[in-house]
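fyi for ur records
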Amino acid sequence: MCHMNHTTFAKFILLGFPNFQVYNPLLFVIFLFIYILTLAGNLLIIILVCKSQSLRTPMYFFLTQLSMSDILITTNISPNMLRLVLNGGGIMHVSVCITQFYVYGSSATVACLFLTVMSYDRYLAICKPLHYSSIMDTRLRYNLVFWSWALAFMVTFFIVLLICNLKFCGSRVIDHYFCDLTPLLELSCSDHSIVEIVDFILAIPFTLFPFVFIIYTYVCIFLTILGITSTIGRQKAFSTCSSHLIVVSMYYGTLIIVYMIPSKGYTFNLNKIISLLYTMGTPFFNPIIYSLRNKDIKMALMKCTSWCKRL
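which gave:
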Protein backbone atom coordinates (compact mmCIF):
# COMPACT_ATOMS: atom_id res chain seq x y z
CA MET A 1 0.00 0.00 0.00
CA CYS A 2 2.72 2.49 0.92
CA HIS A 3 6.39 2.80 1.72
CA MET A 4 6.92 3.24 5.46
CA ASN A 5 9.99 5.52 5.67
CA HIS A 6 9.51 6.19 9.38
CA THR A 7 8.99 2.65 10.64
CA THR A 8 11.66 1.18 12.89
CA PHE A 9 10.43 -2.39 12.44
CA ALA A 10 8.91 -4.26 9.53
CA LYS A 11 6.38 -6.51 11.24
CA PHE A 12 3.59 -6.40 13.79
CA ILE A 13 2.67 -9.20 16.19
CA LEU A 14 -1.07 -9.89 16.34
CA LEU A 15 -2.12 -11.74 19.47
CA GLY A 16 -5.56 -12.83 18.30
CA PHE A 17 -7.38 -14.29 21.33
CA PRO A 18 -4.62 -15.01 23.89
CA ASN A 19 -7.01 -15.37 26.84
CA PHE A 20 -8.94 -18.11 25.05
CA GLN A 21 -6.06 -20.28 23.82
CA VAL A 22 -7.49 -23.31 25.61
CA TYR A 23 -10.51 -23.05 23.32
CA ASN A 24 -8.55 -22.24 20.15
CA PRO A 25 -9.39 -25.56 18.38
CA LEU A 26 -13.09 -24.99 19.07
CA LEU A 27 -12.87 -21.32 18.02
CA PHE A 28 -11.12 -22.34 14.81
CA VAL A 29 -13.92 -24.77 13.89
CA ILE A 30 -16.64 -22.23 14.74
CA PHE A 31 -15.00 -19.37 12.84
CA LEU A 32 -14.26 -21.58 9.83
CA PHE A 33 -17.86 -22.82 9.80
CA ILE A 34 -19.20 -19.25 9.96
CA TYR A 35 -16.81 -18.10 7.23
CA ILE A 36 -17.81 -20.90 4.84
CA LEU A 37 -21.52 -20.29 5.46
CA THR A 38 -21.03 -16.54 5.00
CA LEU A 39 -19.40 -17.06 1.61
CA ALA A 40 -22.02 -19.61 0.58
CA GLY A 41 -24.96 -17.47 1.70
CA ASN A 42 -23.81 -14.26 0.05
CA LEU A 43 -22.73 -16.02 -3.15
CA LEU A 44 -26.13 -17.72 -3.25
CA ILE A 45 -27.85 -14.31 -3.06
CA ILE A 46 -25.72 -13.00 -5.94
CA ILE A 47 -26.33 -16.11 -8.09
CA LEU A 48 -30.09 -16.10 -7.45
CA VAL A 49 -30.42 -12.42 -8.40
CA CYS A 50 -28.36 -12.94 -11.55
CA LYS A 51 -30.26 -16.08 -12.63
CA SER A 52 -33.84 -15.26 -11.63
CA GLN A 53 -35.89 -12.88 -13.77
CA SER A 54 -38.21 -12.07 -10.85
CA LEU A 55 -35.29 -10.72 -8.81
CA ARG A 56 -33.95 -8.35 -11.46
CA THR A 57 -35.17 -5.20 -9.73
CA PRO A 58 -33.20 -2.30 -8.20
CA MET A 59 -33.77 -3.58 -4.66
CA TYR A 60 -32.15 -6.96 -5.36
CA PHE A 61 -29.46 -5.39 -7.52
CA PHE A 62 -28.39 -3.31 -4.52
CA LEU A 63 -28.64 -6.41 -2.34
CA THR A 64 -26.03 -8.15 -4.52
CA GLN A 65 -23.69 -5.19 -3.95
CA LEU A 66 -24.21 -5.47 -0.19
CA SER A 67 -23.43 -9.19 -0.44
CA MET A 68 -20.24 -8.37 -2.34
CA SER A 69 -19.15 -5.96 0.40
CA ASP A 70 -19.93 -8.65 3.01
CA ILE A 71 -17.78 -11.16 1.11
CA LEU A 72 -14.98 -8.60 0.87
CA ILE A 73 -14.96 -7.69 4.57
CA THR A 74 -15.10 -11.28 5.85
CA THR A 75 -12.53 -12.57 3.33
CA ASN A 76 -10.20 -9.72 4.23
CA ILE A 77 -10.27 -10.62 7.95
CA SER A 78 -11.36 -14.25 8.48
CA PRO A 79 -8.51 -16.23 6.79
CA ASN A 80 -5.79 -14.43 8.76
CA MET A 81 -7.89 -14.60 11.94
CA LEU A 82 -8.14 -18.38 11.48
CA ARG A 83 -4.35 -18.51 11.18
CA LEU A 84 -3.97 -16.50 14.39
CA VAL A 85 -6.39 -18.78 16.24
CA LEU A 86 -4.69 -21.92 14.95
CA ASN A 87 -1.17 -20.71 15.85
CA GLY A 88 -2.03 -18.79 19.01
CA GLY A 89 -1.00 -15.49 17.39
CA GLY A 90 1.06 -14.51 14.39
CA ILE A 91 3.26 -11.99 12.61
CA MET A 92 2.05 -9.59 9.92
CA HIS A 93 4.15 -7.22 7.83
CA VAL A 94 3.39 -3.54 8.43
CA SER A 95 2.38 -2.95 4.81
CA VAL A 96 0.09 -6.02 4.87
CA CYS A 97 -1.45 -4.80 8.12
CA ILE A 98 -2.18 -1.36 6.67
CA THR A 99 -3.55 -2.97 3.51
CA GLN A 100 -5.91 -5.06 5.63
CA PHE A 101 -7.12 -1.90 7.36
CA TYR A 102 -7.59 -0.22 3.96
CA VAL A 103 -9.76 -3.05 2.62
CA TYR A 104 -11.67 -3.32 5.90
CA GLY A 105 -12.31 0.43 6.13
CA SER A 106 -13.39 0.61 2.48
CA SER A 107 -15.75 -2.36 2.70
CA ALA A 108 -17.27 -1.09 5.98
CA THR A 109 -17.84 2.34 4.41
CA VAL A 110 -19.35 0.92 1.24
CA ALA A 111 -21.72 -1.21 3.35
CA CYS A 112 -22.96 1.98 5.07
CA LEU A 113 -23.51 3.61 1.68
CA PHE A 114 -25.35 0.62 0.22
CA LEU A 115 -27.63 0.38 3.26
CA THR A 116 -28.43 4.05 2.61
CA VAL A 117 -29.04 3.45 -1.09
CA MET A 118 -31.33 0.53 -0.27
CA SER A 119 -33.33 2.66 2.17
CA TYR A 120 -33.70 5.34 -0.52
CA ASP A 121 -34.91 2.67 -2.94
CA ARG A 122 -37.55 1.49 -0.41
CA TYR A 123 -38.54 5.13 0.23
CA LEU A 124 -39.18 5.71 -3.47
CA ALA A 125 -41.03 2.40 -3.89
CA ILE A 126 -43.41 2.97 -0.96
CA CYS A 127 -43.71 6.75 -0.66
CA LYS A 128 -43.50 7.68 -4.37
CA PRO A 129 -44.65 4.55 -6.24
CA LEU A 130 -45.88 6.45 -9.32
CA HIS A 131 -42.48 8.05 -9.87
CA TYR A 132 -40.38 5.06 -8.82
CA SER A 133 -39.58 3.71 -12.27
CA SER A 134 -38.73 7.10 -13.73
CA ILE A 135 -36.47 8.09 -10.82
CA MET A 136 -34.77 4.75 -10.11
CA ASP A 137 -33.83 4.10 -13.72
CA THR A 138 -30.82 2.09 -14.92
CA ARG A 139 -28.55 5.13 -15.11
CA LEU A 140 -29.21 6.21 -11.51
CA ARG A 141 -28.88 2.62 -10.33
CA TYR A 142 -25.41 2.18 -11.81
CA ASN A 143 -24.30 5.65 -10.74
CA LEU A 144 -25.26 4.92 -7.13
CA VAL A 145 -23.31 1.65 -7.20
CA PHE A 146 -20.24 3.11 -8.90
CA TRP A 147 -19.94 6.14 -6.64
CA SER A 148 -20.58 4.11 -3.50
CA TRP A 149 -17.62 1.82 -4.27
CA ALA A 150 -15.41 4.65 -5.59
CA LEU A 151 -15.99 7.06 -2.70
CA ALA A 152 -15.52 4.34 -0.06
CA PHE A 153 -12.10 3.35 -1.41
CA MET A 154 -10.99 6.95 -2.05
CA VAL A 155 -11.93 8.18 1.43
CA THR A 156 -10.21 5.28 3.20
CA PHE A 157 -7.13 5.69 1.01
CA PHE A 158 -6.79 9.27 2.27
CA ILE A 159 -6.66 8.00 5.88
CA VAL A 160 -4.14 5.32 4.86
CA LEU A 161 -1.84 7.99 3.40
CA LEU A 162 -1.85 9.76 6.76
CA ILE A 163 -1.06 6.48 8.55
CA CYS A 164 1.87 5.90 6.22
CA ASN A 165 3.47 9.11 7.48
CA LEU A 166 3.38 7.96 11.11
CA LYS A 167 6.40 6.61 12.93
CA PHE A 168 5.96 3.18 14.54
CA CYS A 169 8.43 2.25 17.24
CA GLY A 170 8.61 0.69 20.69
CA SER A 171 6.01 -2.03 21.14
CA ARG A 172 4.90 -3.79 17.99
CA VAL A 173 2.25 -5.99 19.60
CA ILE A 174 -1.39 -5.57 18.48
CA ASP A 175 -3.80 -7.13 20.96
CA HIS A 176 -6.46 -7.75 18.32
CA TYR A 177 -7.33 -10.24 15.60
CA PHE A 178 -7.09 -7.74 12.73
CA CYS A 179 -5.52 -4.36 11.99
CA ASP A 180 -8.11 -1.80 13.02
CA LEU A 181 -7.37 1.93 13.20
CA THR A 182 -7.24 2.31 17.00
CA PRO A 183 -4.75 -0.55 17.63
CA LEU A 184 -2.56 0.83 14.83
CA LEU A 185 -2.53 4.35 16.23
CA GLU A 186 -1.71 3.05 19.72
CA LEU A 187 1.61 1.71 18.36
CA SER A 188 2.59 5.04 16.83
CA CYS A 189 5.18 7.10 18.70
CA SER A 190 4.48 10.20 16.61
CA ASP A 191 1.56 12.61 16.92
CA HIS A 192 -1.46 10.91 15.35
CA SER A 193 -4.09 13.46 16.37
CA ILE A 194 -4.46 14.60 12.75
CA VAL A 195 -5.41 11.06 11.75
CA GLU A 196 -8.06 10.89 14.47
CA ILE A 197 -9.44 14.32 13.53
CA VAL A 198 -9.63 13.47 9.81
CA ASP A 199 -11.19 10.09 10.60
CA PHE A 200 -13.81 11.79 12.78
CA ILE A 201 -14.56 14.44 10.14
CA LEU A 202 -14.91 11.87 7.36
CA ALA A 203 -17.14 9.69 9.55
CA ILE A 204 -19.76 12.48 9.59
CA PRO A 205 -20.65 12.43 5.85
CA PHE A 206 -19.96 8.72 5.33
CA THR A 207 -21.41 7.19 8.50
CA LEU A 208 -23.47 9.67 10.52
CA PHE A 209 -25.30 11.40 7.63
CA PRO A 210 -26.24 8.07 5.99
CA PHE A 211 -27.60 6.86 9.34
CA VAL A 212 -29.67 10.05 9.77
CA PHE A 213 -30.92 9.72 6.18
CA ILE A 214 -31.94 6.11 6.80
CA ILE A 215 -33.90 7.17 9.89
CA TYR A 216 -35.60 9.94 7.87
CA THR A 217 -36.60 7.57 5.06
CA TYR A 218 -38.07 5.05 7.50
CA VAL A 219 -40.06 7.74 9.31
CA CYS A 220 -41.55 8.65 5.94
CA ILE A 221 -42.10 4.97 5.10
CA PHE A 222 -43.88 4.24 8.40
CA LEU A 223 -46.10 7.32 8.03
CA THR A 224 -47.02 6.19 4.51
CA ILE A 225 -47.71 2.63 5.69
CA LEU A 226 -49.97 3.92 8.48
CA GLY A 227 -51.95 5.81 5.84
CA ILE A 228 -52.70 2.60 3.90
CA THR A 229 -56.28 1.55 4.68
CA SER A 230 -55.91 -2.08 3.57
CA THR A 231 -54.39 -4.41 6.19
CA ILE A 232 -52.99 -6.66 3.47
CA GLY A 233 -51.48 -3.70 1.66
CA ARG A 234 -49.97 -2.43 4.90
CA GLN A 235 -48.40 -5.82 5.67
CA LYS A 236 -47.07 -6.15 2.12
CA ALA A 237 -45.49 -2.68 2.24
CA PHE A 238 -43.86 -3.35 5.62
CA SER A 239 -42.56 -6.78 4.57
CA THR A 240 -40.58 -5.23 1.69
CA CYS A 241 -38.45 -3.17 4.09
CA SER A 242 -38.47 -5.18 7.35
CA SER A 243 -35.41 -7.25 6.38
CA HIS A 244 -33.44 -4.13 5.49
CA LEU A 245 -34.45 -2.47 8.76
CA ILE A 246 -33.19 -5.46 10.78
CA VAL A 247 -29.83 -5.42 8.93
CA VAL A 248 -29.47 -1.65 9.45
CA SER A 249 -30.18 -2.05 13.18
CA MET A 250 -27.57 -4.82 13.48
CA TYR A 251 -24.89 -3.03 11.48
CA TYR A 252 -25.18 0.46 12.93
CA GLY A 253 -25.86 -0.91 16.42
CA THR A 254 -22.47 -2.64 16.55
CA LEU A 255 -20.67 0.30 14.91
CA ILE A 256 -22.09 2.72 17.48
CA ILE A 257 -21.05 0.43 20.36
CA VAL A 258 -17.49 0.02 19.05
CA TYR A 259 -16.68 3.48 17.68
CA MET A 260 -19.04 6.03 19.24
CA ILE A 261 -19.42 4.87 22.85
CA PRO A 262 -16.27 5.68 24.87
CA SER A 263 -14.24 2.48 25.26
CA LYS A 264 -12.36 3.46 28.40
CA GLY A 265 -12.83 0.72 30.95
CA TYR A 266 -13.61 -1.86 28.27
CA THR A 267 -11.32 -4.86 28.17
CA PHE A 268 -9.71 -5.82 24.88
CA ASN A 269 -11.62 -9.09 25.02
CA LEU A 270 -14.96 -7.27 25.11
CA ASN A 271 -13.84 -5.05 22.24
CA LYS A 272 -12.89 -8.11 20.20
CA ILE A 273 -16.21 -9.83 20.87
CA ILE A 274 -18.15 -6.72 19.81
CA SER A 275 -15.92 -6.37 16.73
CA LEU A 276 -16.78 -9.96 15.77
CA LEU A 277 -20.43 -8.89 15.49
CA TYR A 278 -19.79 -6.65 12.47
CA THR A 279 -16.74 -8.35 10.92
CA MET A 280 -18.27 -11.86 10.99
CA GLY A 281 -21.77 -11.67 12.50
CA THR A 282 -23.40 -9.14 10.16
CA PRO A 283 -22.02 -10.66 6.91
CA PHE A 284 -23.17 -14.08 8.18
CA PHE A 285 -26.71 -13.04 9.16
CA ASN A 286 -27.45 -10.72 6.21
CA PRO A 287 -28.23 -13.46 3.64
CA ILE A 288 -30.14 -15.45 6.28
CA ILE A 289 -32.34 -12.48 7.17
CA TYR A 290 -33.04 -11.59 3.55
CA SER A 291 -33.71 -15.19 2.48
CA LEU A 292 -35.91 -16.15 5.45
CA ARG A 293 -38.01 -12.96 5.38
CA ASN A 294 -38.29 -12.53 1.61
CA LYS A 295 -40.82 -14.53 -0.40
CA ASP A 296 -39.24 -13.63 -3.77
CA ILE A 297 -35.84 -15.01 -2.75
CA LYS A 298 -37.41 -18.15 -1.28
CA MET A 299 -39.37 -18.72 -4.50
CA ALA A 300 -36.24 -18.18 -6.61
CA LEU A 301 -34.33 -20.61 -4.38
CA MET A 302 -37.06 -23.25 -4.76
CA LYS A 303 -37.00 -22.85 -8.56
CA CYS A 304 -33.22 -23.11 -8.59
CA THR A 305 -33.32 -26.22 -6.40
CA SER A 306 -35.92 -27.92 -8.60
CA TRP A 307 -33.90 -27.02 -11.72
CA CYS A 308 -30.74 -28.55 -10.19
CA LYS A 309 -32.65 -31.76 -9.33
CA ARG A 310 -33.71 -32.15 -12.97
CA LEU A 311 -30.08 -32.08 -14.15
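Residues 48 and 300 are 7 Å apart (CA to CA). thats all i got for now
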